[in-house]
Amino acid sequence: MLLPQVKETVKDLLRFRSVVTLVGFAPFKTAVAALENINSISEGIITEDLKIFLDSCLPESTKQEIVILGVADPKLGVNINEALGIKCDHLNAVPEIIRGIRFHFHNLVKGFTPQTSTVSQLGLGHSYSRAKVKFNVNRVDNMIIQSISLLDQLDKDINTFSMRLREWYGYHFPELVKIDAEIFAERIISLTDYRRKMSSYLGSKMSSVAPNLATLIGDQVGARLIAHAGSLTNLAKAPSSTLQILGAEKALFRALKSRGKSNTPKYGLLFHSTFIGRAIAKDKGRIARFLANKCSLASRIDCFGEIQTSIFGEKLRQQVEERLEFFTSGKEPKKNIDAMREALEETRQMLAEQAAVKKKSDKRKRSDVLENGLKKENGHAVNGEADTSLPKKKKKKSKGTTDK
Fold it and tell me: How many angstroms separate the first and last alpha carbons of the chain?
């Protein structure tokens, strides 16, 4: 068939059905299975579901009739030919036929409507795109930036209102004005409660987005670093020297403008960390440089790591503690490579334990499903509900008894 004729045939459903016949259709059981298959097929990898489908639906080639499989991706066609020995084609009329199948899919398969087909394709497309760009909706750092900004604003407002209430309460007013002061005090208390809730929300978001950075330096300082950098990705891409002076840009440019007359700042937002406050004056710059290095490592692990864990942050925090002790007592701290090896080993153990727990829970779910299925089969339906009670055994008549 010529290509122009195929294009005209694709537009009309009746003509397309006369050319294309549905032989087999295997729907995916879950959205996870669909995502795994589309990820593998996009890279040219043949999945087990695809092998089973081709073996069951595709007829074997004979001398009289050669079977050719039409594919959209030439890379996938080459792999199918090498693995299964099936001849594939992606040229000529194949793209137009595939386009027609997509266009008339809801008419070819029973039980499908354009709405359900669009919804399923849209959901799978979002999941596929999210997996491709390594985007996780639970790890969006925009909410952290907004939360820490709102938290800072609440701190300023609560402080201002509390000072105003203190001055207001210090003067003598009649009872009517006293009622107004009490209403204002209740408003400040509600703002303080909201600030407490916002702080806990920020902590939960930091534990899901940047657990290692939050464990190392704290929720609020880590959130301020992310907000100042613009995003967790920008913070991870920045060198540790830039991270060290984040928040002290004015002092830095003032020092550069003076051409050596004043010293450059040693720290910016890192000053709010407890490690800087615990160090003596001469060691503050050294511990700030070391802490910035560890914060840079933690942010990169959080941003580009696929495993969500705070083990690395705990090890990095332990290294900073050992460095502080080294500055005071001279005790040799642990090397970074040894600490990272310990963190990797603990992470492997954690993943193994999680896999064992998941396997155990899946096994329990399967046994529960089987048990419920057997109960439904053995139970008697009474008023639309299954009777789970055991059937009573009939009493056997004794040989000596006779009916009267």
Answer: 88
CA distance 39 to 45: 9
User: Token pair for residue 290?
Assistant: 């070391």
**141-350 maps to CATH 3.40.50.970:** no
Token pair for 109: 């398969």
Determine the Cα–Cα distance for residues 197 and 202; give it in Å rounded to an integer.
9
For the domain covering 4-133, report its CATH number.
3.30.420
404 residues of the chain, pLDDT tens digit each: 456 776 777 778 888 888 888 888 888 888 888 888 888 888 888 888 888 888 888 888 887 888 888 898 888 889 888 888 888 888 878 888 888 888 888 888 887 787 887 888 888 888 888 777 665 555 678 889 989 999 999 999 999 988 887 777 666 555 545 567 778 888 999 999 999 999 999 999 999 899 999 999 999 999 999 999 988 989 999 999 999 999 888 888 888 888 777 788 888 999 999 999 898 988 899 999 999 999 999 999 998 888 888 999 999 999 999 999 998 888 888 898 999 999 999 999 998 998 888 888 878 877 776 777 655 555 544 444 444 444 454 555 544 444 43
